[in-house]
């Protein structure tokens, strides 16, 4: 048995301390701020669309790929940095950055400047989950990990719900007080961005006070400073450095890298011609090419990590299967308020209160219940957590169909609550599964890889897909209902993960050693 495995098992026998729960509470507050800053765009979307003369497709880009691509790509080197550097310090820096960029969104005057600000928010928020997941995995034993990760993940839903209420309230109060624009000509939606961004700078001081847990010794640790390795990892994602790394691996690797770049450019050009959305497909092509380049380079520099993540079908299928769950969840979170405001003609203040409150409650209950249930099933079945992820993709189908075909506001609200509740059950189970499939030194990288699926598949595509289909069909209802089509694909991936997971987890140490020896 390897030293890493023994370390995991020995920590698994210890109960989480009081301080561990305190740290978890702080991380939940950070994640609430994370999602307030991320999701506030939803309740402000109609006003932003009017003032900046945007289309639904452009709104979908702002709510999805503009944030998601940079969140996902920077999450990769930042996840690796979380495995090697001071995680509390990294999270503090990230919180300062994304809070500042959220506040700067309040000064946006056009589509370009708001897009750039959203990209900056994505870079800053990319520090959050890799550091938090790694800290939680050190502070909590394996038998409590899904529950702890589920509690942390509740910040997603609490923040998303609070963002609707805060955004609507601030924008309405501001516009009522300053009908022609306040100081500097700022209107209500701009004031809302400023109001939610600035408090994060204060919370950053609280985060900086947390203790960094002692890491297990790592014989494979690099002699270089972790920040040096961070910039090396970042270069693996950014052209033309991606081609340089490919050339170092040989002529064939360089050819494959160029072929992948050409294929992504070609695909982007086709989709741009079909949809007319240059930013969306340029960002998507860049994102997928960058991930391919990073994974290919990781295979050479850290074969063990590559083998346990990219070389493990159970990991990939779990991440992609949950990525499609998140596709629907992110799309609903972004479009439910604009849909109800434009199609059902419900007032913004009512939507903020009901959708915000029900979204926070349903997400919180769903993620906690799902985490507890997945831990219980895990104790009886090595693949038990995957069953909870399957539930998260199947159960929301009927509530989505009923909720977005009804004209009754009460039925809409109830179905929206149920869809959010059912989808939220999957997150803790999927996150814990991916953490269990790697060695402790790889947890930050595993988290970043997991979030590649939730962002480049879920967040980058979900809001945009609904917006684009809405724009093409002339019906936002059809756009939302198109989400049901992803359920069979997700279910097929999760069935495969369910069947292959036990063997993959039982052979972690052996496969890592085999990869290192090749």
Lay out the secondary structure.
Layout: H1 3-12, H2 18-52, H3 56-63, H4 65-82, H5 87-105, H6 111-125, H7 128-139, H8 142-177, H9 188-197, H10 199-208, H11 226-235, H12 241-248, H13 251-275, H14 278-301, H15 303-309, H16 313-342, H17 348-378, H18 384-394, H19 397-403, H20 409-424, H21 426-436, H22 443-459, H23 462-473, H24 476-481, H25 487-506, H26 508-517
Short summary of the structure?
With 518 residues, the chain is mainly α. The chain contains 26 helices and no strands.
Structure overview:
With 518 residues, this protein is mostly helical. Helices cover 81% and strands 0% of the residues. The protein is built from 26 helices and no strands. α8 crosses α21 and α16 packs antiparallel against α21. The longest helix is centred in the N-terminal third of the chain and has 36 residues. The protein is globular and about 65 Å long. The N terminus is likely disordered.
Q: Structural class given helices, strands, pairing?
A: mainly alpha
Quaternary structure of the protein: single chain
The dominant shape is globular
| C-alpha termini separation | 20 Å
Radius of gyration: 22 Å
Mean pLDDT: 88
β-strand number: 0
- Helix count? 26
Major β-sheet annotation? none
User: What proportion strand?
Assistant: under 5%
Low-confidence sequence ranges:
1-12
Output the keywords.
518 residues; disordered N terminus; 26 helices; globular; single chain; 81% helix; mainly alpha; 0% strand
């Amino acid at each position: 048995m390897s030293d890493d495995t023994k370390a995991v098992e020995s920590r698994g026998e210890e109960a989480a301390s009081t301080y561990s729960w305190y740290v978890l509470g702080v991380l939940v507050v950070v994640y609430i701020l994370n999602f307030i800053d991320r999701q506030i765009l939803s309740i402000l979307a109609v006003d932003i669309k009017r003032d900046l003369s945007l289309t639904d497709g452009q709104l979908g880009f702002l709510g999805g790929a503009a944030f998601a691509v940079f969140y996902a790509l920077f999450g990769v080197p930042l996840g690796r940095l979380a495995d090697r550097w001071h995680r509390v310090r990294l999270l503090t820096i990230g919180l300062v950055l994304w809070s500042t960029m959220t506040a700067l969104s309040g000064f946006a005057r056009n589509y370009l400047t708001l897009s750039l600000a959203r990209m900056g928010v994505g870079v800053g928020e990319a520090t959050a989950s890799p550091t938090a997941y790694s800290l939680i995995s050190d502070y909590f034993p394996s038998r409590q990990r899904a529950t702890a990760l589920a509690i942390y993940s509740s910040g997603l839903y609490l923040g998303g719900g609070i963002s609707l209420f805060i955004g609507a309230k601030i924008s309405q109060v501001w516009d009522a007080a300053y009908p022609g624009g306040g100081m500097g000509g700022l209107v209500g939606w701009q004031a809302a961005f400023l109001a939610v961004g600035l408090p994060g700078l204060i919370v950053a001081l609280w985060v900086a006070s947390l203790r960094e847990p002692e890491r297990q010794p790592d014989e494979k640790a690099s002699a270089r400073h972790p920040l040096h390795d961070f910039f090396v990892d970042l270069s693996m994602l950014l052209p033309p450095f991606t081609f340089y790394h490919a050339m170092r691996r040989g002529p064939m690797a360089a050819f494959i890298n160029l072929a992948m770049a050409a294929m992504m450019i070609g695909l982007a050009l086709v989709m741009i011609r079909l949809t007319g959305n240059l930013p969306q497909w340029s960002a998507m092509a860049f994102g997928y090419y960058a991930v391919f380049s990073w994974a290919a380079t990781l295979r050479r520099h850290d074969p063990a990590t590559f083998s346990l993540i990219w070389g493990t079908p159970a990991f990939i299928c779990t991440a992609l299967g949950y990525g499609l769950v998140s596709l629907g969840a992110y799309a609903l979170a972004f479009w439910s308020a604009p849909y109800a405001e434009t199609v059902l003609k419900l007032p913004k203040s009512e939507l903020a209160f009901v959708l915000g409150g029900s979204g926070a409650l349903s997400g919180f209950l769903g993620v906690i219940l799902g985490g507890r249930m997945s831990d219980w099933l895990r104790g009886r079945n090595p693949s038990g957590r995957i069953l909870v992820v399957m539930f998260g993709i199947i159960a929301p189908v009927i509530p989505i169909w009923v909720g977005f075909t009804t004209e009754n506001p009460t039925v809409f609200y109830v179905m929206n609550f149920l869809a959010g509740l059912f989808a939220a059950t999957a997150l803790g189970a999927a996150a814990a599964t991916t953490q269990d499939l790697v060695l402790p030194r790889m947890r930050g990288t595993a988290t970043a890889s997991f979030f590649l699926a939730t962002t480049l598949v879920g967040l980058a595509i979900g809001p945009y897909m609904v917006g684009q289909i809405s724009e093409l069909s002339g019906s936002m209802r059809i756009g939302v209902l198109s989400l049901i089509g992803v359920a069979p694909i997700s279910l097929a991936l999760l069935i495969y993960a369910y069947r292959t997971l036990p063997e993959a987890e039982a052979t972690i140490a052996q496969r890592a050693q085999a990869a290192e020896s090749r």
